[in-house]
Structures are given as structure tokens and as C-alpha cells.
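Good morning C.,

I know you're traveling, so I'll keep this short. The sequence:
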Amino acid sequence: MKPQPKSKVDAKAFEQIMRQHNRTLFRTARAILRDDAEAEDALQEAYVQAYHSLGSFRGDAKLSTWLARIVANEALMRLRKQKRRAEIVPIEPSATVQQLEQVSDTNMDNAPDISAERKEMRGLLEAQVDALPDGYRVVFMLRAIEELSVQETAAVLEIPQATVRTRFFRARSLLREALAQKIDFACEDAFSFAGARCDRIVASVLARINPSKETP
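The C-alpha cells, ready to paste straight into the viewer:
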């Protein structure tokens, strides 16, 4: 195995880059893989790749777009491996109320002003986003939740802008059918990215790219 080239960015500077982009990039990986643990692993691996490739970054695209493309490629590669290893488990056509109530909410903010109805709708939205077809799900996550432009989304996923528009329109239509007019209200808090996850990802990547020093 060839040794990885040394990045021109020190670990401390790269930590700031990770903290700035962690939520968006985690959501990108999560939209593709539909699994928190797999998304974390994919994001960490993508960060290591990005760290060692920063010297080749020429600024032709925004740094956030360049990073998101690396994360998306890593997540898609993992998804393809999963599909080769086993048959895909089909998405249930509908979920029971009990199943929807069991959607993990442990990483979400528990501020007293968040009503029980809003939390329930957030869980419903996450479940419905997970149930979208693969191509629609990641486009919706990037466009609606992360608010990337059509051009940025197309660059991240390496698909035509017209395809982004079509998939986003269809994804919103599917979700509105399930959630009616409440989707826009719930989007703000969907797939919350808690500080603990951010710290865990940063610490793990720093340990890999700079093993000689202990992370705080």
C-alpha cells in the first residue's frame, strides 16, 4: 500500500473544517445509507480521504461541495457493497403508529418550547424521508434540509441539474401526500445533529490523521 501524501493543512485547521461541515455532510451520508452508524463510518472515511487530498483541491468548486462529493461517493460505494452482499430488505409500504413513535429522538434537542406535536411530526418526517426512493431521498435532503442550490446538488451527486429539479419536485410531492401541509414546519428540526456525534466524529478522524498526538 502506498503511503498517503501529507496534507498541507494541519490537524487543528482541519478540525475547524470538520466542525463547520459536519452536520451537512452527515446528513448527506445518512440520506444515502439510511443508517446512523454507517453514515458516521462513511463520513469519517471521507474526511480522511479529503484530508490527504486537500493539496489537490484547486478551488474550482466550493470546499463544501468538494467535501460533499467525497462523502456522497464514499456512501454510494458502501451502499453498492451492501447490495452485493445481500438482498435489499424492501421498505414496508406503510408503518404503524407504534413504529413511527419508535423513531430515534435521543439526539434531538429537548427544549421546553418544542411541543409534543412538533416532535411527533419531526419523527414522521424522518420516517417518510427514509422511505423515499434512493435518488429522491438524497436530493431532497440536500435541497430542502441543507438548502443547497440546484447547481450545488448536481455537482455533489454528479447528475444533471434537470434531474435534480425533477427528483426534488417528485420527492416533495411524495412527502406532501403523506404529511400534507406540515412538511415545511417539520423540516427545520429533521435529522438533528447533536454535539456528541460531532465531537465523536472529529476525535476519531483526528486520531487517524494525526496519531502521534493525543486529541483533547
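Safe travels,
E.
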